[in-house]
Amino acid sequence: MNTCISNGFIITADKTCSTMNGCVHVTDDIITYVGAEKDSPAFAAYKTIDVNGGIISPGFVNTHTHIPMNLFRGFANDLALMDWLENAIWPAEERLTGDDVYWGSMLGMAELIAGGVTCFNDMYNFMSDTLRAANETGIRGVIGATIIDFGKSIDERLAEADDLFAQLADNERVNAAIAPHSEYTVSDDSYAKLLKSAEKHNCRIHVHVSETKGEHEGCIERNGITPIARLNSLGVLDLPTMAAHCVWVSDSDMEIMADKNVGVMSCPQSNLKIGSGIARVSKMIDSGITVSCATDGAGSNNNLSMMEEMTLLAMLQKGSNYDPKLIPAKTALQIATINGAKVIGQDDIIGSLEVGKQADIIVLDTTGPRYCPSANLLNHMVYSGNDSDVVLTMVAGEVLYENGEFNRLDINEVMSKADSSAKKLLG
Amino acid sequence: MNTCISNGFIITADKTCSTMNGCVHVTDDIITYVGAEKDSPAFAAYKTIDVNGGIISPGFVNTHTHIPMNLFRGFANDLALMDWLENAIWPAEERLTGDDVYWGSMLGMAELIAGGVTCFNDMYNFMSDTLRAANETGIRGVIGATIIDFGKSIDERLAEADDLFAQLADNERVNAAIAPHSEYTVSDDSYAKLLKSAEKHNCRIHVHVSETKGEHEGCIERNGITPIARLNSLGVLDLPTMAAHCVWVSDSDMEIMADKNVGVMSCPQSNLKIGSGIARVSKMIDSGITVSCATDGAGSNNNLSMMEEMTLLAMLQKGSNYDPKLIPAKTALQIATINGAKVIGQDDIIGSLEVGKQADIIVLDTTGPRYCPSANLLNHMVYSGNDSDVVLTMVAGEVLYENGEFNRLDINEVMSKADSSAKKLLG
Asked: Among B70, B72, B73, which would you mutate to test the A interface (most chain A Cβ atoms within 10 Å of its Cβ)?
């Protein structure tokens, strides 16, 4: 099915993040033209979408999520991390079923899609149920097979991972990663086994790193080295590694990360809300590290808005370094799109509006007061916009969301079922 | 005209910030009932608005704005402060006319009203034109008569202030303040004169204080004391004073501010974006200071969203102090409503939903995915919501905005005129 998205302000998010007025042609699932209307080739579009001067952008890549935790949104706030986990989240999680995870995932994916996120990178349990939701909603994603030395044995966990990879053999939009929870919750022996599994599946590693000061310093106390150094000594960083948070990584950690091409998923809002701190993103970028941004789970955020995250990431670097020139709007936009694609190893197929890439495209309405005056639309998107500006979300050429309507899901059913699950879980 | 706003989740923002399911009765411009439907007295409502379980909250009080600067939204970003001022803002401001200010104010007020702000506290030039816009849009506000030793003489400025106060004699929604720009842009002699004027008009003082490190330390270098200490020595703080920013105030400044009952307008987003830093809001509150929050102008924010500001204020205190318990959701909501009313000296008439107060009320739609699961709506409003949730804004019992429609202004005309002004100013 061929679609022409016309009459827009195009933000490419390519290397130079060029912008232009024009149109985008989509042939089946592929972008076949990006540019001025007058230069566009003849194109037999099945559907033409006139976006009325709106922004045409690549969809956001949300690189660190726990999507089913949408069930826990607002359940407990303003608590210390361990209090929150021990007295609120963990007891509720013990009561979780696959169906709860499915409905929580459906709710989370609806929110992602409505907010212009076309690809997520998840870590949670009941992966098959998250996959079921992804297949139904049509969103692109990477599902992490979680490894943690708690509850099940490492062998059981890796068997689950094998099962997940088997289910994904022919899946065009979803693939998987091996996701050791962190340095402190997975033993050396388990790491050795999961690395073999990751090699077998030729996949990436997804892991929490130095999220809190306590976690970072606890590792140094126990092991004499930082979490990054320990993961490196275990051989983890020899595989392509995606490291979430990295609030407390040291300068020498950054050297290792740059050397080993570790991608970072910064979660600025979650890091503030839980009291973890502010990641040194600008310093990481200067060190040659690819930094993306992410929402974390709705339990600690409390929404899945990438519009908010990219803005906050930029603002925090300016404010905490007393330098307004840091992370200009174009960089923020790239962090939320093409950098995310790089971190998950898919920048050859998604993350920017370039001919030959998958048509993962969003459109933002720019007719409201927050986009006036009409110049500088890219700046408005980053510094003045919010999720409600998103009026169209397309994945692989398929429109999943348009003008408030979901094409693949019944949002009222999803909210009703998720609400019932939440009520049950939260007792 | 009597209105019943029914079937809502009421957030009172009163002393205990109690919440309940119920309805609010509005008789003419006054709140006459807040509580459960079943306990409500007989009421002959001209209009009943069923909000379908939505949130009924007091409108936000945005305590530090430069509303006409909406014309400069996105004009220049990611620049150092003096570069931004000297090469972008000031040259454009030299070309400003009263009509530009009027259309910029109309645009800003439209954005405020659509985002649930029922009262602003402004500081800019061409005050009569901002007043004209306020009278037309129906928003409540305080207009600061700006005093700065630049361009006009102090006597000319104070004559303009007299003129502004004269225009406001019978105005029920708008009043005025005397607004010396800052410690460093107004001489001792000018301060002496403006204090007499403020006493004559029995009004408050609105002033920028210790926004940047350079400003704070420059004052100490020149005068041997901090800006707060200097304002105190000049007698400014003997009048009711509203201090914007206060990012760099010292512990001893806080003692003076608490003693003199100085109200603070914290602008977290602007302070980050310009690279000023993070105000020590929790410490100020612990010191006994009333802290409100505000957007600053759209030139340095880049929007006028109080939903964003209250969230960011809470998040920043948690993150920068490594303590997630700081500024819980209820406190954030109070900072954005009743504390704002206190800072501008109007908490006897606005800022909370209490019988006898002015009916400055907003309604938020809670039927979208960001408000699911359905428990903890107050937390969702603070941590998951955004401006687009606002579906009704009422000032003094009058509905100014409902379901995306403005009752008093033609938003397309406003945007078109503001856009033309911006194009002209920005050359």
From this structure: B73
Q: With respect to CATH, is domain A2-59+357-406 assigned 2.30.40.10?
A: yes
We find that the CATH architecture of domain B60-343 is Alpha-Beta Barrel (3.20)
Where are the CATH 3.20.20.140 domain residues in chain B?
60-343
Distance CA B397, CA B361 (A): 8
A303 preceded by cis ω (within 30°)?
no
Measured between beta carbons, which residues in chain B are less than 8 angstroms from residue A297?
Answer: none
Provide, as residue numbers in chain A, all residues whose Cβ is less than 8 Å from the Cβ of B422.
Answer: 372-373, 375
Question: Rounded to the nearest 5°, which phi and psi values hold at A55?
Answer: -85, 130
Which chain B residues have a beta carbon less than 8 Å from that of A413? Answer: none
Nearest CB partner across the interface for B77, out of A276, A379, A386: A379
Taking Cα atoms as reference points, which of B329, B98, B285 lies closest to residue A78? B329
Q: What tokens does A371 get?
A: 């986009």
pLDDT of A309: 98
Residue B2 CA to residue B26 CA, distance in Å, equals 5
- By Cβ distance, the residue of B110, B312, B323 closest to A275 is B323
In the prediction, which pLDDT does B67 show? 97
Tell me the nearest-neighbour CA distance from A111 into chain B, angstroms.
6
pLDDT in tens, B129-170: 999 999 999 999 999 999 999 889 999 999 999 999 999 999
Phi, psi angles (nearest 5°) of residue B8 = -120, 175
- On chain A, the residues whose CB falls within 8 A of the CB of B111 are 369-370
Q: What is the pLDDT of residue B404?
A: 96
The answer to whether the CB of B333 falls within 8 A of the CB of B307 is no
Contact A418 B379 (CB under 8 A): no
The interface predicted TM-score of the complex, written ipTM, equals 0.97
CA distance B296 to B284: 19
Fold classification of B2-58+358-406 is Urease, subunit C; domain 1 (2.30.40)
Interface test with B, best of A55, A272, A406 (most B CBs within 10 A): A272
**Which residue of B211, B280, B367, B372 is the best one to mutate when testing the A interface, meaning the one whose CB has the most A CBs within 10 A?**
B372
Chains A, B: CB contacts within 8 A come to: 213
CB contact under 8 A, A78 and B273: no
Residue range(s) of every CATH 2.30.40.10 domain in chain B = 2-58+358-406
Give the pLDDT confidence of B244-265 residue by residue, as tens digits: 999 999 999 999 999 999 999 9
Residues belonging to chain B: 427
Residue ranges, chain A, pLDDT below 70: none
- E strands, A258-385, are 263-266, 291-293, 361-364
The pTM (predicted TM-score) of the whole model is: 0.97
